[in-house]
Amino acid sequence: MSVEFVHPRLGEEVQALAGYYTLLKELRLKHNDREVLCITGMGAVEASCCGSRSFHYAIVPGYVVSWKSRVNEEGLPVSEVEPVSEEATKQEIVETLEATEGIFQSDVEFW
Questions:
Q1: Which 3-state string (H, E, C) describes the chain?
Q2: Phi, psi (deg, nearest 5) at residue 104
Q3: How do the domains of the chain map onto residue ranges?
Q4: Is the N or C terminus of the chain more exposed, i.e. has fewer CB atoms within 10 Å?
Q5: Based on the number of CB atoms within 10 Å of its own CB, is 40 exposed (0-12), middle (13-18) or buried (19 or more)?
Q6: What is the per-residue pLDDT across 8-45, written as a single tens digit (0 to 9) for each?
Q7: Do 69 and 80 meet the contact criterion of CB atoms below 8 Å apart?
């Protein structure tokens, strides 16, 4: 089952209650003759009861079915993706992100 993915604006700092986050880049990772869309970002917690921390993370919407095939009403490109469901495949993608981007398993979120 595929779903729509609205490509976010990259490089814009988004303020949150205790800090901020910034989406940094889109990756199209080759995996088993398909492409997997990954978005990397950086988050910072500046004002929490437990101290401050910054970290890099990745969001994995899924396999690319169609790439930026249309534009939404806000002018943002929209792709169609198929979420990754197999646990072994998720682990392989996490290992690739750790090796290439320095992003750890606990900081990778799959749709």
A1: CCEEEECCCCCCEEECCCEEEEEEEEEEEEECCEEEEEEEEEEEECCCCCCCEEEEEEEEEEEEEEEEEEECCCCCEEEEEECCCCHHHHHHHHHHHHHHHCCCHHHEEEC
A2: -85, 160
A3: 3-110
A4: N
A5: buried
A6: 999 999 998 889 999 999 999 999 999 999 999 999 99
A7: yes
Locate 82 and state its tokens.
């198929």
Give the global pTM. Answer: 0.90
Tokens of 110: 């799959």
What does residue 10 show for φ and ψ, rounded to 5 degrees? -90, 150
